[in-house]
């Protein structure tokens, strides 16, 4: 028997993970929530933004970032994609299926990489689709009130693209934490904690909320996705690195632990 | 010659202060069914997990065909295994499960359909595995193990949950695999199960090797060969047996249990003295008895059998 090339083996593992992902119903439920929630929330937030100053009968406040509704809405989908990421490993650990997986593919880091590749690819496509759909929807609502921006506006396409990244980032973070924690409930709790709890620093007194907050995933993501980035946080380019660093660090930890522990 | 053999060499595994496998060595050879026996908790599953590269040994090593499992490029083509039949995603169909496993080792889809037919699952391949009985899950696990048509096969407690028809099928299946020259290692905690299937037995207790022997040798090695006899002149006969170097132990019901003399010698002795015999029964311990003796106290029997 000839030894198959590294590329062939990598493709086989990726194909295996693709079969696994699309052969269970939980994937489709999670994707449904991932697509529907942000689009619904984006429309509502846009309406709220557009109508708030008029309803209060006051001089219009300085307009909020026109891209904010879209990001806020995506943050609601983050939970669903994180769960999908966690389940990719925790589901196999809880059923014992992980032993079937690792006997079929003893190079465990290759399994981690294949799961990450499939999840990232799916979430990138879904995330960008949802981001551009939410953008279109919110801007249509805001435009009716004269606050909208078009996709041709400088800085907008990049910001929307980066917003779409958030789902893949959170799915990978969930995947890594699922591999680290190895239990579904614990993995979901850990992922939500890592994503949401650092938001507490926003409650810190003025300079500190920014100094620490700029390192948190969601603050960095807002910075990347904003048309008018905040001045007390990192510049968007640095913030993008921070957004990507969260799953990268988690995946690195998972890669170390996955080969050291008994399956 | 290491092709197709499983070699376990001075293997130890400790979980904290618990020693699951303790300096265990044995070799599993092709062409026969090897039963891997021991009471629950003896270390069988841990040993199998180490062979499959799932658990790291504390000391020693296990190799298949001379190579460590985690160094195999397409492991399913060299070793097929079933550790836990319930290790399935409840929502995935049997076919999708097998397709996922097959694809990871570059095994074509046509082979998935073959193993489904081989295990009699072709009629339920499109159903979700969560609705399967334990027996059907065992068949699905065996189907997965056969995907790569491997020369070495390992099954952990495969008979659990099978109905009588399934048990009959699986015994014949293991024997066929061995007859085709494959290496077949089957674990069980029940000797009765292995007695009818295994040609060779590796028995462990508390992680240590207790016996590594053919099934027949194990029966023969038993100290429990004796002769039960009944006679109206039992006491007189007991004296004659003792004089010939045998031991006759009176039973509460008046019978004698004779060791040290076989049935023929005992019968001749009685005839020579004109003593009538009402019963003369050579008795041999069953495999089950031998197994219980061996595993009943591991340390004693380790000494007794070596």
User: By helix and strand content of chain B, what is the structural category?
Assistant: alpha/beta
Q: Mean of the pLDDT scores of chain B?
A: 91
**Class computed from helices, strands and strand pairing of chain A:** mainly alpha
CATH class of the largest domain in chain B: Alpha Beta
Task: Describe this protein with a few key phrases.
heterodimer; A: 263 residues; mainly alpha; 10 helices; B: 306 residues; Rossmann fold; Alpha-Beta Plaits; six-stranded mixed beta sheet; four-stranded antiparallel beta sheet
Protein model, in words:
The complex is a heterodimer of chains A (263) and B (306). Chain A is mainly α. Chain A has one domain (6-49, 64-260). Chain A contains 10 helices and no strands. The radius of gyration of chain A is 20 Å and the shape is globular. Chain B is of the alpha/beta class and 306 residues long. Chain B is 35% helix and 26% strand. Chain B has a 6-stranded mixed beta sheet with strand order 5-6-7-3-8-9, sandwiched between helices. In chain B, strand 11 (247-250) and strand 12 form a beta hairpin. In chain B, helix 3 packs across helix 4 (134-146) and helix 10 (287-296) packs across helix 11. Residues 299-306 of chain B have low confidence and may be disordered. Classes of the chains: A mainly alpha (263), B alpha/beta (306). The interface between A and B is medium-sized, with 31 and 37 residues.
Summarize the structure.
The complex is a heterodimer of chains A (263) and B (306). With 263 residues, chain A is mainly α. Chain A has helices at residues 6-22, 25-56, 68-95, 97-104, 108-143, 156-181, 184-196, 206-213, 217-225, 236-260.
Annotate the secondary structure layout.
The complex is a heterodimer of chains A (263) and B (306).
Chain A lengths: L5 H17 L2 H32 L11 H28 L1 H8 L3 H36 L12 H26 L2 H13 L9 H8 L3 H9 L10 H25 L3
Helix pairs in contact in A: 1-5, 2-3, 2-5, 3-4, 3-5, 3-6, 3-7, 5-6, 6-7, 6-9, 6-10, 9-10
Chain B lengths: L5 E10 L2 E11 L3 E6 L6 H8 L7 E6 L14 E4 L11 H11 L4 H10 L15 H13 L5 E5 L7 H16 L3 E6 L2 H5 L4 E6 L2 E7 H7 L3 E6 L3 H10 L3 E4 L5 E4 L3 H10 L6 E6 L2 H10 L1 H8 L1
Parallel strand pairs in B: 3-7, 3-8, 5-6, 6-7
Antiparallel strand pairs in B: 1-2, 1-4, 8-9, 10-12, 10-13, 11-12
Helix pairs in contact in B: 2-3, 3-4, 10-11
